[in-house]
Amino acid sequence: MQLNEVLDRIPRLRKQATHELVAAVLREAITTGHLKANQPLPQDEIASQLQVSHIPVREALRQLQSEGLVTYQANRGATVSALSPDEIAEIYEIRAILETSAIRRAVPRLTEAQLEQASRILDAAEQATDGAVWGLHDVDFHQRIYALSDRPRRDELIAGLLRRVDRYWTLYGLMLTHRATFDREHREILAALYQRNADLAAGRLEAHLAGAAGLLIGELQRVAMTVSEPAR
After folding, report:
1. pLDDT digits (tens, 9 = 90+) for 199-220
2. For the chain, which residues make up each domain, given as ranges?
3. What CA–CA distance (Å, rounded) separates 227 from 232?
4. What is the pTM of this model?
5. Count of alpha carbons within 13 angstroms of residue 202, beta-carbon side
6. 30 with 165: CB under 8 angstroms?
């Protein structure tokens, strides 16, 4: 594991505690696929690479465990968590409940300027040639259109659920594979917002999330079958 490269990309906050910086580095490495599911996270190696003591590393791993990104396994210590298809399905079901609630609340409050900004984000996404860049625009779009709900705890839950599954999209290179479908669905959601139709926007968002869940679960099952097939 090469964490120094990830560290260079993490913005340093003036009052950021050491364990928060370690957590930020590991979170970035996990969500971008640099650290894979079930990969061990040895505290000695992490501390050595980041030039910190074991205490902030231990605190960071506990924090990431609470976020669902790290699992403690008997005789193995901390490892990057792995999600089953059923767990991914459940995460998307919860996301649909939270995010459709958020978009319904946001629809009457969105200004024309904010809608235009969301449209520009989609313009940038449609021009992106890198999956990671497209993914950043995707997250930005979703946050822009319903992060105005004055429900910071709900927004925090949504962000946490997204972090749990986003790494799989990066790992399997699915961002660009299905971008045409996602770009079209994003435009349909935005059109409903321009119409100030909360029910239509929520319905399109729910269908968008269900479709994404199906694609991701299908890919995990395909990979699992490929791995389990005997060599010929």
Report:
1. 999 999 999 999 999 999 998 8
2. 3-80, 85-228
3. 13
4. 0.80
5. 16
6. no
CATH of 85-228, one of 1.10.569.10, 1.20.120.530, 3.30.70.260, 3.40.50.300: 1.20.120.530
Please give the single-letter amino acid code of residue 16: Q
SS (H, E, C) the chain: CCHHHHHHHCCCCCCCCHHHHHHHHHHHHHHCCCCCCCCECCHHHHHHHHCCCHHHHHHHHHHHHHCCCEEEECCCEEEECCCCHHHHHHHHHHHHHHHHHHHHHHHHHCCHHHHHHHHHHHHHHHHCCCHHHHHHHHHHHHHHHHCCCCCHHHHHHHHHHHHHHHHHHHHCCHHHHCHHHHHHHHHHHHHHHHCCCHHHHHHHHHHHHHHHHHHHHHHHHHHHHHHHCCCC
d(CA 157, CA 40): 26
3-80, CATH topology level: Arc Repressor Mutant, subunit A (1.10.10)
Q: What is the mean pLDDT of each run of 10 residues along the chain (232 residues)?
A: 62 65 88 84 91 92 91 85 92 96 93 95 94 88 82 89 85 84 97 97 97 93 69 47
Q: How far is CA 57 from the centre of its chain?
A: 22
